[in-house]
Amino acid sequence: MKIFKFTAIFFISLLCVLRLQAQETKTDKEQEIKSQKIAFFTDKIGLTPEEAQVFWPIYNSYWDKKNKIIADRKDKMTFFAENNAKMSNEEMIKYADQYIRYEMQLAELLDEYHKKFKEILPIDKVMKIYLADYEFKTYLLKRIQKSSKNENE
Predict the structure, then answer these.
(1) Distance CA 5, CA 16 (A)
(2) For the CA atoms of 103, 106, 108, 111, what is the dihedral angle to 10 degrees?
(3) What is the pLDDT of residues 111-138, one digit of tens each?
(4) CA 123/CA 129 separation, integer angstroms
(5) Angle at 133 between CA 130 and CA 134, to 5 degrees
(6) Which of 96, 113, 105 is nearest to 69 (CA)?
(7) Confidence band, pLDDT 50/70/90 cuts, at residue 19
(8) Backbone angles phi, psi at 136, to 5 degrees
């Protein structure tokens, strides 16, 4: 009985340690990407130190709100994907309508922050925000493709 308890405690402890390491690795990667994004955007937009000081809190607020909408949408769509075979037509309409509301929320959020960006930056730099966002996504996708290629070799 003592061996069983010891083994159980050992495995539970091991799982906790592995889970913490996985979380730290994710956090480290997220922090690395965030640092790269800051450098990438600052360079592409051409932010002065004064502009950067005002821009980043507003931009981070935008991304926090955007990520919440995206996470909510993902949860709903995942639930739908797993359960649509059991849903009535009315339930499917509800999920389709909710999807459109998420897209509208994202558009409204962009419009709200577009106005804020125009208040703090010249319009050419506002447009460079959108360009940098697109280019950074492309950069990340290429990096993911390259790393998965290296893992397969």
Answers:
(1) 16
(2) -130
(3) 999 999 999 999 999 999 999 999 999 9
(4) 10
(5) 90
(6) 105
(7) low
(8) -70, -40
Q: What is the pLDDT of residue 18?
A: 47
Q: With CA atoms as reference, report the closest residue to 136 among 74, 71, 49, 43.
A: 43
DSSP structural state of residue 121: S
Q: How far apart are CA 80 and CA 92, in angstroms?
A: 8
Tokens 């922050």 correspond to what residue?
113
Amino acid at 50: E
- Report yes or no: 95 and 76 within 8 Å, Cβ to Cβ: yes
Compare 64 and 13 and report the one with higher pLDDT: 64
CA atoms within 13 Å, Cβ hemisphere of 142: 6
CB atoms within 10 A of CB 89: 7
Q: Output the average pLDDT for the chain.
A: 85
The whole-number pLDDT of residue 1 equals: 55
